[in-house]
Sequence to fold (171 residues):
Amino acid sequence: MSYRVSMRASSAEKLSPSGRVRKPPKDGAPKLKDFQLLLRSSGLRSTAPRVAVLEYVHAHSGPNSHAELFDALGDKGFDRATIYRILMDLSDVGILSRTDLGDHVWRFELRRGARGIEHTEDHPHFVCVDCGEVSCLPGVSVRLEGGTKAPRAVAKNKVVVQLKGRCDNCA
Fold:
């Protein structure tokens, strides 16, 4: 069974130097009350650790691992288990998306944020084979064409696409 993959970059979306897309907020960066409103509207209690995680993922767009979040927030007194539970809770209510890019590390991305900030939900990722850096490719569309015996996931477009190679820093 063979598949043909075609890719094209969309000129409608502008990428940051890191390859990430964000819809800018209307009145500046989200504030504490914006994060509290987002949590409460999603059915979650607004707690200091949840707000801290939301602030981090808003400020550092793209795929973030649990370890990256712990390294960034551990000095605030939050333990690994608390941060992990928060990431899972935020994923369950649709604020974050959770992705495994084949290296058995869950990465979390903002899907629906405070003040209308959004991250494109379905997009491929680029993984550097040397340094392991992961970048979003939201302006790239991938189209799979396969034979009649393709898995149902391909027919229903329920696949995760990742590209591997060397990033600009390692090339």
In short: Residues 44 and 107 are 21 Å apart (CA to CA). Helices lie at 32-41, 48-59, 66-73, 80-92, 152-155.
